[in-house]
Design brief:
Length: 270
């Protein structure tokens, strides 16, 4: 979507190049008989672009067998930093880029008094890493750590290195993306702290299945409050298993069945 360039603050809506790109892509999206989108918010966006209602929602899915569930006490990443017995640990795993809103998380952390701050572990790579490292150095708090990227072959260890998985989409990204890391964190059986528009696909999923918390983007004050509430009064043991929700609703067999139905429908049209 060219709209991603606006959300990432690469181009402005008034920019001539953006207007040309959007026009071209709108025509492109209006061409197919059917479009498969990965969220209701994306469907609303695409239907608005095409002025049709030919899009079908088939949510993201992963093979849960690709991710192992591991106790924190056995996690090699946490052992290296002596956090295997600490709780709660808020974990950010994945791309640290322009549309992840990591700066909003950092601002929220700054608002929490040092003696009340839980532990935050950042893993990944991206264009915002330098700013993140700089912010952590200024904070000078050993409870906030960035350990670099994790190899794809080690993703289970990364996804299991914490108690609560932070999943973000920056302001302006509604309908433009559905973070796949949410589903990978669910496979690791982690509750989700979603920092994104309340109407986004992941936010709606969290509320529907009661597997976490939702905070709007660009509101560090509210995010800080929710982090403290989670730290002080919420136990992961009281949460519904996000892995079970994934298996029942967002696994390969569920998605493939829906895709086959779309293909059959298109074949009948022809």
């Amino acid at each position: 979507f060219p709209e991603n360039l606006v959300a990432a603050k690469v181009l402005k809506k008034e920019n001539f190049l953006y207007k040309v790109l959007k026009k071209v892509f709108d025509i492109f999206y209006a061409t197919p008989e059917k479009l498969i989108v990965i969220g209701q918010d994306m469907k609303d966006l695409v239907d608005g672009k095409t002025h049709k209602k030919n899009s079908v929602v088939i949510q993201n899915w992963i093979d849960e067998n690709d991710i192992e569930v591991e106790e924190k006490s056995s996690n090699e990443i946490l052992k290296k930093i002596n956090w295997e017995n600490e709780s709660p640990i808020f974990q950010f795993f994945g791309n640290i880029g322009r549309v992840q809103g990591v700066d909003n998380i950092v601002e929220a952390i700054k608002l929490i008094e040092p003696f009340k701050r839980p532990k935050f572990l950042f893993m990944g790579d991206g264009v915002y890493v330098e700013q993140l490292n700089h912010a952590i150095q200024i904070l000078g708090d050993s409870n906030i750590q960035y350990i670099g990227s994790v190899q794809q072959s080690e993703k289970s260890k990364g996804l299991n290195a914490g108690d609560i998985a932070i999943v973000t989409l920056a302001d302006g990204m509604l309908g433009l993306g559905v973070p796949s890391k949410a589903y990978f964190s669910m496979a690791a059986d982690k509750p989700l702290l979603a920092i994104m528009d309340e109407h986004s696909e992941v936010a709606c999923m969290i509320r529907a299945h009661q597997i976490g918390w939702v905070v709007p983007p660009e509101n560090p004050e509210l995010l800080a409050q929710v982090i403290l509430q989670i730290t002080e009064s919420t136990s992961k043991d009281n949460m519904i298993s996000s892995r079970s929700v994934l298996i029942n609703n967002y696994s390969e067999p569920v998605a493939m069945k829906k895709i086959v139905e779309v293909l059959q429908h298109v074949s009948n049209i022809k």
